[in-house]
Fold Geranylgeranyl reductase family protein.
Amino acid sequence: MYDVDICVLGAGPAGATAALHLAKAGVPCLVVDRAVFPRDKICGDALGSGVLPELALIDAALPGRLAASSRQLPTWGVHFSAPNGRGIQLPALPAFTPDTPPGGHIIKRLDFDLLLVEELRQRPEVTLLEGVNISRQECTADGRWLVESADGQTRIRARLLLVANGAQSAFSRQVGGHALDPAHHCAGLRVYYRGVRGLHPHNYIELHFHQEFLPGYLWIFPLPNGEANVGVGMLTSAVAAQKVNLRERLQQMLTQHPALKERFADAEPLETVRGFGLPLGSKRRSLSGEGYLLLGDAGSLIDPVTGEGISNAMLSGRLAAATARQALAAQSFGAGILATYDDAIHQNLGRQLELSYRMQRLLRFPRVINFFANRAANNPRLSDAITNMFLNRDLRQQLWQPGFYVRQLLGPRRGPVVRAGIRMVRELQRWWRK
Ligand SMILES: Cc1cc2nc3c(=O)[nH]c(=O)nc-3n(C[C@H](O)[C@H](O)[C@H](O)COP(=O)(O)OP(=O)(O)OC[C@H]3O[C@@H](n4cnc5c(N)ncnc54)[C@H](O)[C@@H]3O)c2cc1C
């Protein structure tokens, strides 16, 4: 039996980040994970632009350690392919030289999560229990949480639970009220390959928006040693409505699609296709209650357009640690004080998730994507914007400015036409919000 103030359930990016920020502030915590690290996690393995700053906030040396690892691959751009087959190459920065900083990194979760867990193992403030599967939780009469492992060997009493046990969290469903909502949930598949032909020399990540998967996409992300992470994500409601067998459809695409079949002709799958869910942050939900906070996937915080969840998970870990410290200082773990976490998440992620959800709804229309892809091929500013959508979330803001589209599409000097266009897009936005 452990009796602690703070227990973190799950040592993925959300839980590990929370525990490391607590440790940095000298606050002890107990971290428990059912896996023994290194462990795999079904994922695209792409680290978006938000991850390096989060790593640096844990420890300024961490981004350098990641970049120096032979297990990661830097990426310098995005290859975007539209439903009409048009492919556009979108460099992260206009000109490439060997010194150009990469737009992101790709690293198997086996290795990335271990990087964080190794930090946890070194911190005296952190007690890490691996291989402990928590299967039961109960709020006791004194307001503390009692959690217990499936084998009954481990029991933990905690005043505050930071729930970071991922997309299948029973706590989120049973206590937090996060039932799986097919309209705000994505089904994802991943399979590692070796020998995919035609990967970009600067390790571009590939996003293939085929009509069959919209508003989701098929991805090919290069990895070190000639391997690639190949997968697909599709809205769970669309999978159900179209009665799709996603595994079969992915296989069909790789073996029959004219743009892919040659590239996969001699490629060797390194595992069977494996699936996992992505709880999307396209719907605002409560993230706290009496004595608990929901972090990362357990709080449904994945970006609804890109499927990116690692950086949001880390951000939520950092904000949860700050709230936990406030609660500890006030010696109060009630729902009132913990609700500041909801506010902090909303302030930091609310706008981004809202914008992404709107974009996701636009991406359901193949003609819209084709239109932008056709234009972007000859319009560097528009192609920059599409790149930023995937590699730079701050710049995503500009994608919801009506003037931006109109200027990209009509050119900067057509004043009255541009103004009329802006009014029209504003009208459309108002209609959309309704
Ligand atoms: C197919 C797919 C592709 C994706 N691609 C990307 C991508 O390219 N880039 C990106 O940024 N995001 C991607 N994501 C999303 C990303 O994987 C998640 O958002 C991210 O892993 C969330 O981190 P987390 O710490 O919240 O949860 P997790 O990483 O799932 O960690 C949860 C931890 O809790 C532990 N745990 C679970 N249950 C228990 C239990 N009962 N008791 C104890 N411990 C438990 C697990 O062992 C695990 O270590 C993808 C997701 C999927 C499914």
Summary: Residues 9-15, 32-35, 41-46, 48, 133-134, 164-166, 188, 190, 231, 276, 278, 296-298, 302, 307-310, 313 surround flavin-adenine dinucleotide (CB under 6 Å). The chain has three domains: 2-68+109-180+283-357, 72-107+181-279, 401-434.
